[in-house]
Amino acid sequence: MKSENETRIEEKNAEFYKALEAQSVQKMDAVWLQEEWVSCVHPGWEMIVGWKDVRSTWEKIFSGSQKMRVSPADVNVRSSGDIAWVTCVENITVFQEDRFDSIQAVATNIYMNRNDAWMLIHHHASPIPVIMAETATETVQ
Amino acid sequence: MKSENETRIEEKNAEFYKALEAQSVQKMDAVWLQEEWVSCVHPGWEMIVGWKDVRSTWEKIFSGSQKMRVSPADVNVRSSGDIAWVTCVENITVFQEDRFDSIQAVATNIYMNRNDAWMLIHHHASPIPVIMAETATETVQ
User: Which of A49, A85, A127 faces B110 most closely, judged by CB atoms?
Assistant: First the structure.
């Protein structure tokens, strides 16, 4: 059974994915701890450090017109003191003009409890190429 | 200036990369907390959960005969209470039969202080494809 603490962390993690799906920088503002040392790795990107630069990357990503659905799965929450680390699979569907692509990524999200609120301090997502490899094989055949 | 604590965490992080370069499962045993909830994402892999399964993946990776050099760069250490999170760039050179490939990955490593020793509890590495794309271009030319 989940503790109240774990439930709150999982809710904040779900809020992060709602911000991603909504492509809302304002919603990201409410999720991230806005410090110069927070960090973020988007799938296939280098490490971005500092809230100002991390926020800019979200603005850039959200400036595209593609709609998407994002849902976290296999969510695993652990915490110790004021730090929590969450791992999950990100199921992402991107809607293009006349088709949609489904991709999976795996994520590590670290949260810090600041003033009794769990805030995102590090996000690392990486694509799971196995899915893409299978798709590629189907395409070739 | 680094605190004594940060120095110890960075040393353990360096020890992890020495274990990787030595391709030694025994050295990995000394770095990881051996619990059923520790987790690991190798570049391009899915999440592996539990020390037993994580250890098996290292055995599998190390069973190849390729020699490699690994050095962490841009190492950033932060900690709060008994949890530390380290981000770094992994510079990896893999020696093939008659050539070598240099790749870069970005990593998130989480450590837990257990009995006054910092032990690895989560490793997430993902390739930085920009570098590979550049290498590919050079090869084509």
Answer: A85
Task: State the DSSP string of B70-132.
Answer: EEEEEEEEEEETTEEEEEEEEEEEEE-SS-EEEEEEEEEEEEEEETTEEEEEEEEEEE-HHHH
Beta-carbon separation of B41 and A85 below 8 A = no
The answer to whether the CB of B109 falls within 8 A of the CB of B13 is yes
Domain that holds residue B13: 4-140
CATH classification at residue B69: 3.10.450.50
Closest CA to B86 of B101, B97, B95, B74: B74
pTM of the model: 0.90
For B6-58, the pLDDT digits (tens) are: 999 999 999 999 999 999 999 999 999 999 999 999 998 899 999 999 999 99
Q: Is there a contact between A81 and B78 if contact means CB atoms under 8 Å apart?
A: no
Does residue B57 belong to the interface with chain A, where contact is any CB pair within 8 Å?
A: no
B128 close contact with A: CB closer than 8 A: yes
DSSP class of residue A45 equals -
